[in-house]
Structure formats: structure tokens, C-alpha cells
Design goal:
mainly alpha; 9 helices
Length: 214
């Protein structure tokens, strides 16, 4: 069979393909679904009055805004990067927000050094933070990967890395509703450990679930 005949046969027998919605639409739907799911434990289990009091402090308000912005920007960038014709510069979208998040958190840790001295420097005193990040972040990471698989990204590791930044930001934002005091140095260590696990989980899952789909 010549090439033209093969193309005609494939075109005649191929099943119809449902076109994906635009990346921004898919990201918005994903974020809306995650917000609806996260709202249930936040409303039922967190102390919103305490959270509102902490959020009224300018530095804390900046940290919360930067954390949430990092999460949203990372998810949006991941959906764009999952499409083959998108520029890799989308990976830079969450970077400025992540830098502000890191700077404001670092400043908060510096301001709470005296409190850390009173609480002590026990290695596992902030294990609850790590557990909450895992409970929130791992299902979120799985949901994001399921949503990205249909796009068949050409650079799965880049998509997973940017998506991990988004999941990390969103998980850290949710954690703040259950964190009645400012982040200390040991808390920051637990947060970083949790975020590294999320990055590792997403990148490993990308190799297994997204790689080879070009």
C-alpha cells in the first residue's frame, strides 16, 4: 500500500478524538475542584478565627498570598506545559511568587527564633506539619497527574516539576489553616521535607505515567 492509501485508510478507520479544553480552562476547573474539596475540612476542622487573626498581620498576609499564588501559578504553568506547542518559559511563572514565599517565611523564622529556643530543638516536634502536607499534597498530586495525562506532554519531567511547585504551594496554604502559630525553624524543616517528598512523588509518577507519551 502506498503512503496516500495508508493515510486514507487510517483516516477512515480512526476513532474520533475529543479535543482538550484550553489549558486555562482545564486549570481553572482543576483549581475549583481542589478548592471545593479543601473547603470541607477547613470549615469543619480548622479554627478560622485564629487563622484570620494571623492573616491580619502584614508579613503573614504577604506569606499567605505568595504561597497561594505559587500554587495557582504552578498549576496553570503545568497545564500549559503539557501542551506540545507551549513555550518552556511557562515554567518561570511561579518563580517570583515562590521567591516572595521563601523570603517571607524566612523572615518569620528569624522573628520566632526566641520562641524556638523555648520550645526546644527536638527533631520530630514538627512532625504533624509533615503529616498534614502528605495528607493534603499526595492526593492533590495524583489528581493533577490524572488531569495532565490526556495532554501527552513531550517534557513530562518539566511538567511534573512545575506541577509539584503548584501542589506544594497549595498544600502549604491549606496547612496554614491548621497552624495556629508562626512557622519556626523546625516547622520550616518539616515543611521543606514534605515539599521535597511531593517533588519526588510527582517526578517519579511522571516517569511512570507521563513519560513516553509523545
Amino acid at each position: 500500500m502506498n503512503t496516500d492509501g495508508l493515510i486514507a485508510e487510517l483516516a477512515a478507520s480512526a476513532p474520533p478524538v475529543k479535543r482538550l479544553a484550553p489549558p486555562m480552562t482545564r486549570a481553572f476547573v482543576w483549581l475549583l475542584a481542589v478548592a471545593a474539596i479543601a473547603a470541607v475540612p477547613i470549615i469543619l476542622l480548622s479554627n478560622l478565627h485564629v487563622w484570620a487573626g494571623r492573616a491580619s498581620h502584614p508579613r503573614m498576609a504577604l506569606e499567605l498570598a505568595a504561597t497561594l499564588a505559587t500554587g495557582i501559578a504552578g498549576v496553570i504553568a503545568a497545564f500549559h506545559l503539557s501542551i506540545p506547542d507551549r513555550s518552556p518559559r511557562w515554567a518561570l511563572l511561579p518563580l517570583p511568587f515562590a521567591l516572595v514565599w521563601a523570603a517571607s517565611t524566612g523572615l518569620g523564622c528569624w522573628q520566632t527564633l526566641a520562641e524556638q529556643d523555648k520550645r526546644g530543638w527536638g527533631l520530630f516536634q514538627s512532625s504533624d506539619c509533615f503529616v498534614v502536607l502528605m495528607i493534603v499534597g499526595i492526593p492533590m498530586a495524583g489528581l493533577l497527574l490524572l488531569s495532565l495525562r490526556r495532554a501527552r506532554p513531550l517534557q513530562p519531567r518539566l511538567v511534573a516539576t512545575v506541577g509539584a511547585a503548584g501542589v506544594a504551594g497549595l498544600a502549604a496554604f491549606v496547612l496554614q489553616f491548621f497552624h495556629p502559630f508562626d512557622v519556626t525553624v523546625m516547622d520550616l524543616g518539616a515543611h521543606l521535607a514534605g515539599l521535597l517528598v511531593l517533588f519526588a512523588v510527582l517526578n517519579l509518577s511522571a516517569r511512570l505515567g507521563l513519560a513516553g507519551r509523545a
